[in-house]
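Hey, can you fold this one?
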Amino acid sequence: MKLDNVRLLVVRFDEMFHFYRDALGLTPTWGDPAGPYASFDLPGGGSIGLFRREIMASTVGTAARPPEDSAQDRFNLVLRVDDVDALAVALGQRGVALLGAPRDMPSWGLRVAHLRDPDGNLLELIQDLPGDALTSSFHEDETVSLGGQGI
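Sure. Predicted structure:
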């Protein structure tokens, strides 16, 4: 397992995009000010992702919570793994509850699973989908409400 990126879950996407691109001088590697997702490479390695907070809330089942900062996730620790499904099984055997079953997100190009650490921080396990499973654009409607499972 290795750290893939830190994804900031943001409300004012266009302002955040301009801040990271223009104020900090980072080069976007994906996305534009319209969102809903963008990534920026960091000098020396690593990356920062920006993602519309309401989309992640819908994806992990917290959309019914108030949109204020204290009620919604502010970041998502993204970990790249070799096999999301195998790790999901291993985590279950260790007593760790996922927020839902692993699932393909074709417009993200990823198979994902979400969980929370003991302090409630959001973690996302990712694995690339095969090239023929990718779609050409990001779709907000691909999110899946989990209705409060594990939250």
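Residues 144-151 have pLDDT under 50 and may be disordered. Let me know if you want another pass with a different chain boundary.
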